[in-house]
Every structure is written in structure tokens, then in C-alpha cells.
Amino acid sequence: MKFSLTFILSLIIALISSCTSMPNDLKNDLDTKDSINNTFISNQLNKTNNIELLKALENGFKLINLSDDEINIIVNSIQNNEIKKSYIKKVENMLNNNKKMSLNKLQLSIKASESNKEIILETLLENNSFFSIVMNENDATFIEDNVLNSNLKFYCNSFIKEQENILEKKIFVDSDYKKTLIIYSDKFSKKVAELKLKYPSELFLRVNDDNYESSIKKVLEIDESNLRGEIINQFIINKQIEHTPRIRQDIGKIYFLLDYDQGKSIVPFLKSYIVGIKIFSTSEIFHNADNIRDLADFEEILMPVSKDFILKTGNQKYDRLKQGIEKLVLSDFITIEKIYQNNLFKNDILLNTGLNSVSKNKCLNRDMGMWKIDLSEVIGRS
User: Fold this and answer.
1) How is domain 159-309 classified at the architecture level of CATH?
2) How far apart are CA 137 and CA 333, in angstroms?
3) Per-residue pLDDT tens digits of the chain, which is 382 residues long
């Protein structure tokens, strides 16, 4: 069935009213940070204090339809030497692509769950897209309910699999002589079975809510260290030496395969014992968190997503961060659809997951970078 403009406008009003609002104090904190803090954009400018220009360029390279005002801002900035000479051709090419795209209606045929349909329509309207959409026809592009674990059209891997591949290379392939401790729950048993086959010499620890403290202490040899401290104190008269447990020295990295409810307890407990050990996880560990503040328990974790991506995730008005991530991933899917329908290949495109260039009939890998979680970089501290 086809959706009329009246239907879509009515739907978006319902969507907006049904979304759970972000707490005002958190939203204000996020807004005070520079959400346009993108190296690709800022590198193009001689001066980076023109917020309107930064936003216009960001929208243009995201293939969001530019308003007349935004186009004028960019054109004037070229004439006023606000854009570096080495980038002018790239910016002019972006303007031409945007003009070409604005003249062509985006044709979409989608088969998806109701929630994903809503996300897609909401994204199209927010981006001022000129579009026609058909839902649930037999030959439509199918979008699975579990967006983050499914192979979306155009991509080589799912959003989560891409993170796992990046971490596998970082943790195991580019490894030093020390062991990696993989701490996981039953939910991730299938992934762990694959890792055990490939890296049998690493340490694997399955945990649950009841046994994680004792299990972690045992694998890190905390109790043995405490016992040694007690023995030493027995031989010292009239003085008690303060003992800090020393963990085993053959562990160089820790990889968490946990969901949010487990991670928010296990990660802080383990961090109280480890010093100088790199810790890693995919974004799954915080998917069910309410907002970015909940990442406080996961600070110092190295994660294959960018700081900018996390900031955008927190700016979405949903109950869980996972829903914000799903919207960003589906938004990128729509952007790549625009590229294919308008033949805009091999141009610099600013996707939510990072800068990329799309080649025709070649699957796309996300360029998500690596971020060491630090809340001071994405929200203001009170």
C-alpha cells in the first residue's frame, strides 16, 4: 500500500507524541556539547566558529536535503574564503549531488515490523526527503526486527558483527604474549563457542548473577593474594600492613560479552581489582541503558563505536539507547539507498557510523573507529 502525505503527517504527529522524552537535564547537557564536532567537517574550514556553516555542511555530506538558506550559507562561505581551498571542489561536488538528489523522488519498498516502519518514516520526514514509500509488498526489501544483528541491504555484516570483527582483530590477532580473559554470560554462548575454537589458549569465564564475584576472584587469583597478605601479617608484631590484592600477571586484556543488566554489576566489581589492563566490549553491554549517564559503570571500556555516534544515540528520544542506535543504523540504510538511486557513488558521505564512500555493487563496511568510554567527553558533569 502507498502512503499519502496526509497519512504520513498524521503518523509523525502520533509518533512524536508517543515517544518518551529525554530528561531535561540530560538533554541540556548533550546540547551544550558540540554535536557537530566532526573532524571531517571542521577540517574544511579556515575558522570553525560558524555553527550555521558547520551544520549546513554536515547536513549536505549526510545527503539531507538542504534548505535554500543552508545552500546560501555554504555558497557565501566559499566566496568569503571560510572554506579551505583544498576542500572547495569537494564542497561544490556535494552541492551538485544535493541538487541532483532533491530533483528525484526517493522510491522505497519496505517490509518491516511496525516499530521499524515508524523509524523509517520518522527519519525520512526529519531529513526533508522527497519520497514515495510502499509497505509490505512481496518483493520489498525486508528489514528484520533485530536490526542490529541482521545484515541490512548494502552492508557486508550486521552492526554487531562488524564490532565483533573489529574487536577480534584488536584483541586476538594483534595480540601480545599475555592472555585475554573473556567474561561472558549464557546469552553469548554461541559467540564464545566460535572464539574457543579459534583461540583455545585464552581464558574463558562464564558468569551469572549469583556467582560472578567468587568466579572473578578465583580466575584472577584474588583469594590467593589475600591469603599471602594474611600470612605476612602473622609474622609482623605490633603492626598491621595494609594489603592490596595483586591479580595474576599473565592477563593483558579483558573482553566482556555481557548485556546491560549483568554488565552494570560485573564491570565495576572487576575494575576494583585491575590496573593497567585494557578492557573491551561491543555496544551490546549498554543497549538496555536508559540514557548516556548509565555508561558511568563502563568508563575506560574500549568500544568500536565513535564518540560522535554515542552522542547521537543519546540525543534520540527513546526509552532505551538501543532504540536510538537502531534509528541511526536505519538512517544510514536510507542514505545509501539515496546514493544508489541517484548514482552518487565514490563520493565522501557522512554516515552516522562514520565517513565512508560507497561503490556500486560492493558491500559496505562501517568505519566506526574506537572509543575509550569517557562520559566527560559527551555530557557535562554536575
Assistant:
1) 3-Layer(aba) Sandwich (3.40)
2) 19
3) 444 444 444 444 344 434 444 444 444 444 433 444 467 888 889 887 889 999 999 999 999 999 999 999 999 999 999 999 999 999 999 999 999 988 899 999 999 999 899 999 999 998 888 899 998 888 899 999 999 999 999 999 999 999 999 999 999 987 778 899 999 999 999 999 999 999 999 999 999 888 898 899 888 887 665 565 455 555 565 665 554 567 778 899 999 999 999 999 999 999 988 888 999 999 999 999 998 999 999 999 999 998 889 888 877 777 899 999 999 999 999 999 999 999 999 989 999 998 899 999 999 999 888 999 998 888 754 3
Contact status, residue 274 vs residue 216, Cβ threshold 8 Å: no
Give the three cell numbers for residue 359: 561503490
Q: Structure pTM?
A: 0.83
Q: Where are the alpha helices (DSSP H) in 235-349?
A: 260-271, 307-314, 321-342
